[in-house]
């Protein structure tokens, strides 16, 4: 659960819920009074508002009778959580510039011979873009497929997608495009194919 002290001021170990809070006539309270009463009850139970919300939106059987309230909470929170995810992914993509930044002048025979997709891009990107990584993995495979590991190259696919996104994000992010483009060129691919895939 969320640490108690994160949302409430320190209280003594022996603090109990206010007994009248359980028996008070709600018609005698305005909206603010009702909210404050609920908060006092939670405080006495050593719970936070976040604990209550997370439990309410869970799939626990005990929450079946409160399903409508749970769905309304989902709807209310979605714009906020979506905005938080967007901001986090944007920050992650900004952080990838140190991984992807490269120009054609940086390409040497030694770099081409030593380049390894896993060590050069995949692992650093997993550390730098954990949220985007989980989003892409969930988009590419079902929960069951992930558990059974049906897709053997899913991490490589993730890296390639992130690389393309990074290049759109900034044209200076060429670490994958330069290497991949040269591989396609050496394999005899047409210029249109190279432009499309790298």
Give start-end ranges of low-pLDDT stretches: 4-14
The beta-strand count equals: 0
Global shape: elongated
Distance between the termini: 46 Å
Going by helix content, strand content and strand pairing, the class is: mainly alpha
Helix content: 55-70%
Order of helices and strands: HHHHHHHHHHH
Give a quick account of the main beta sheet: strands, pairing sense, barrel closure: none
Number of helices: 11
Strand content: under 5%
* Overall pLDDT level: 79
Rounded to an integer in angstroms, the radius of gyration calculated over CA atoms is: 26 Å
Q: Explain this structure to me?
A:
The protein has 11 helices and no strands. The chain is mainly alpha-helical. Residues 4-14 have low confidence and may be disordered.
Question: Which short descriptors sum up this protein?
Answer:
198 residues, 11 helices, elongated
Can you lay out the helices and strands and say which pair or pack?
Blueprint: H1 31-44, H2 49-56, H3 67-95, H4 97-100, H5 109-114, H6 117-128, H7 130-140, H8 143-148, H9 154-169, H10 175-186, H11 191-197
Quick summary:
The protein has 198 residues and is mostly helical. It has helices at 31-44, 49-56, 67-95, 97-100, 109-114, 117-128, 130-140, 143-148, 154-169, 175-186, 191-197.
């Amino acid at each position: 659960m969320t640490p108690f002290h994160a949302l409430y001021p320190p209280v003594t170990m022996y603090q109990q819920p206010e007994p009248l809070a359980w028996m008070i006539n709600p018609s005698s309270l305005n909206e603010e009074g009702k909210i404050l009463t609920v908060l006092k009850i939670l405080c006495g139970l050593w719970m936070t508002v976040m604990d209550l919300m997370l439990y309410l939106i869970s799939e626990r059987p005990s929450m079946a009778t409160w399903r409508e309230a749970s769905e309304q909470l989902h709807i209310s929170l979605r714009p906020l959580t979506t905005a938080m995810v967007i901001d986090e992914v944007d920050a992650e993509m900004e952080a990838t510039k140190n991984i992807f930044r490269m120009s054609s002048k940086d390409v040497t025979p030694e770099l081409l011979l030593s380049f390894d997709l896993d060590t050069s891009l995949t692992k650093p990107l997993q550390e730098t873009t954990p949220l985007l990584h989980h989003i892409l993995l969930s988009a590419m495979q079902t929960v069951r497929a992930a558990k059974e590991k049906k897709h053997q190259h899913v991490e490589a696919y993730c890296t390639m997608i992130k690389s393309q996104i990074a290049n759109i994000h900034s044209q200076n992010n060429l670490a994958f495009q330069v290497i991949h483009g040269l591989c396609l060129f050496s394999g005899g691919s047409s210029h249109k194919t190279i432009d499309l895939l790298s």
